[in-house]
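Replying to the earlier thread about multi-chain prediction with a worked example.

Input:
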Amino acid sequence: MKYIGSWSAGMGAIVLATTASALLAARALADPADPIQGDFGPPQGEPIHAVLGVPPNVPPPIHRNYPAKVIVELEVRELEKEISEGVSYTFWTFGGTVPGSFIRVRQGDTVEFHLKNHPDNKMPHNIDLHGVTGPGGGAASSFTAPGHESQFTFKALNQGIYVYHCATAPVGMHVGNGMYGLLLVEPPEGMKPVDHEYYVMQGDFYTVGKYREHGHQDFDMQKAIDERPTYVLFNGSEGALVGEHSLRAKVGETVRLYVGNGGPNLVSSFHVIGAIFSRVRYEGGVHEQENVQTTLIPSGGAAIVEFHLAVPGSYVLVDHSIFRAFNKGALALLKAEGPENRAVYSGKEVDSVYLGDKAANLEPVSQARAAAAAGTLTKEQQIKAGESRFTGTCSVCHQSNGQGLAGVFPPLAGSDFLMADKQRAIGIVLNGLHGPVTVNGNKFDSVMPPMSQLNDDELANILTFVRNSWGNSGEAVSAEEVTKLRESTKRPEGAAQ
Amino acid sequence: MRLSSRAAVLVVAALLLSATAITSAAAEDDNPYLPVAGGNFRSALPADGRPLHVPGFLLQRHPVTNAEFLAFLAGHPEWRRDAVPVVLADRGYLSHWLGPLEPGAASAAQPVTRISWFAAEAYCEAQQARLPRWYEWEFAAAASGTTRDARGDAAWRQQVLDWYSRPGGGRLQPVGGGPANYYGLHDLHGLVWEWVQDFNSLLPADADPEKFCGSGAQNLQQKDNYAVLMRIAMLGSLHGADTGHSLGFRCARDAGGRP
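Result:
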């Protein structure tokens, strides 16, 4: 009987036909003097101007024990922004961001809503708030031409997390261009305190050009109708929540995510790699589920998920319909800093080479070893021996053709970075590398573990091979050079010395 | 309530118009009225989806320009921005001009925008013309360069749709920049929105225009013709005194040459 308020008018007549007790109940419900659930009376105190949250942040919790009048002012802007690196798109936004500004009120609050359509905009817009009880969720009262403002008022009767979106025809295009956001209606007692609250919203996007095709991309109506998105994104851009924009938390803290799905088409299988949600208020309702790995978030729906961070590292937020994460951009990062807890998670304990079907021909390695002992080692022998070792160890990331993987593992073939500095190259293989580097004009920011478990001969051969393959040409690297560098530099903790 | 206040405004407008119906056919050579042969037509409206007959009519080659509108104001000072009553044109009316008779940075060849429906209708009446009706506009705008009804052509439709994928607010291009369509008309797509005479009665009488958007899926045919649906949505959001940065107009006449 949680939502009595919305039942009373329409459902009363149907309930009447059942039993005498139901009849009495229905009468009671239909009595206008009977208070509506969630209505805590008229607003009290001075009107409050709502502070809106700019994603991924949410407004501060409400510490109020009475219903108030809350004034929300939301401006619609049509803006050209980056959807992926080097790719621009015209987003239609509530508040200048995708998703739109986060609205936070308390159950029982009276919300005076102002929707402003910026004069530079081309399109008329409106807003349908799923947290509104009434026809169109406000859409019928907020249809606004460019350069105009509409106002309507509603009472937030039901607590929960609710999607809002534009409902102007053609609705799919307005939503598909980013016109959605979240409204949180806090319960009267407030939300349980946590260490961090963040705002993440998934959306699918349809561009004429292919995924990551550079330049300005127009909306592709046919792909949208066919439900074949070019991008599936968290917070409206591939770069929105990665790198320096990653979400942050510390070990030992609890994180609460308000996760919405604007659609317009796809249902999200929301998952955080490496975390188990201790609580999920699924479908944004009042019930909680515990120990959830992946929660389904419908288009036009939302959930509240919480998890505790026991060990440090990068936690990856994905739509576990996993091609969307890998090939369409549905990926975000939460970086947890703090001390390791090896009792909970050991980190990597064994890193031995498993050759599998990449089993290399080790004959050249033996030959090179013999030649080195005899003092007759040639550059050609080094290259052959290096190739065998490269195949087993390095090609997993850098690929057997030395091309690497775009955006993740830098190429070695034709690499300006590799060839520019021999000593640096030896040092990287020996001691590893993490942090940003630029290779052939492209930025990379990943981790290469130290390869110091290989001996100096092997490292010298591998380096000689990569510096003389796939178009690279350079002098050989000798085992002596590697030895010298091994003696004069320090390896990271835990690496073989 | 909405309709009655609108009716009252219309009466005021009619009085103003009849008082000033002296015509200046000056700019007509620059923006001639081109014939559009009528025919049967399936509109995105009405909801019953039956084909309707659009009688032949004449439509101006391109949207009315700043230069043309300036010439009109010379003979009709009551439509200057410092003279027009706010019930006939909101505060945005010609607000991008430097002065009441100085377009300033708004160039002569750009379409005139920030024009209310009342002002657009007055301009056309001064030319012994009228604003086109929605069905006329939609009929003419269905044509590509080579065919009268290109709406089934996915490539053409995407090209039309691309205009909506660019932010507004930028500098408007001069008229005539786009290719001519089948009738020799320019810029029906890709430049500005255009007023039509019956902008506020496009929907069945029982559909409250305010609710249009929410019930759009019920009221509209050709649900994949987004460009036209957005035109209808845009017009449905307007009141007669409204003006907009991207909102202009052109005039029409009946095939016999009469308004």
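The beta strands of chain B are 33-36, 39-41, 52-54, 57-60, 193-194, 247-248, 252-254.

Feel free to reuse this layout for your own posts.
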